[in-house]
Amino acid sequence: MRNQSIQVPSWYWVAAVIFLLWNLMGLVSFLSLTIMKDQMMEALPLAEQELYNSFPFWTYIVFAIAVFGGIIGCIGLLMRKKWAKVAFIISLVGIVPQMTYNIFFSNTMAVKGVTALIMPVMIVIVGFFLVWYADSVTKRGWLK
User: Fold this and answer.
1) Which residues, other chains included, contact 56 with Cβ-Cβ below 8 Å and sequence gap of 6+?
2) 140 φ, ψ to 5°?
3) What is the pLDDT of residues 5-36, one digit of tens each?
4) Domain span holding position 114
5) Is 99 inside any structural domain?
6) Which has more pLDDT, 5 or 123?
7) How far apart are CA 134 and CA 25, in angstroms?
8) Fewer CB under 10 Å: which end of the chain, C or N?
9) CB under 8 Å to 99, separation ≥6 — which residues?
10) Do 142 and 8 contact (CB within 8 A), yes or no?
């Protein structure tokens, strides 16, 4: 029970909420590519429709792992639970193959241009950062 008495700075809560919002944006992206796919797909240029339709099924599975792992990790941060780090590691296990495929094995750059690299690179950086952050706040005794 020692960790329950440790106070965390207010910026910890602000950061945890920002991280949760980031991952909820990922959830919106995931849902737009899965559940709402047909309605949104018609509005896209043909090249983008073909790009998204060419993604293998496994990329959607790792996308789900990445998104839901990240959301669960953020909930863990808000609950001040050590298992948040494990959830972020699981999320990263989804992020790496998904972004590797998107950057190196799909036609994303040909269809969307070099600027299409920005978001995948940011996602990978944030994924690694969240694992580090959860580890760091655990070592400070902020997670129990």
Assistant:
1) 101
2) -80, -5
3) 789 999 999 999 999 999 999 999 999 888 86
4) 2-139
5) yes
6) 123
7) 20
8) N
9) 120, 121, 123, 124
10) yes
- Average pLDDT of the chain to the nearest whole number: 93
Residue 79 amino acid letter: M
State the residue for tokens 């639970």: 81
Cβ burial 64-101 (10 Å sphere, 16+ → b, else e): ebbbbbbbbbbbbbeebbeebbbbbbbbbebbbbbbeb
Residue type, position 21, single letter = L
Amino acid present at 85: K
Provide the domain count of the chain.
1
pTM of the predicted model, to two decimals?
Answer: 0.90
Longest dimension (CA), the chain: 58
User: Structure tokens of 38?
Assistant: 């047909």
**Is 144 inside any structural domain?**
no
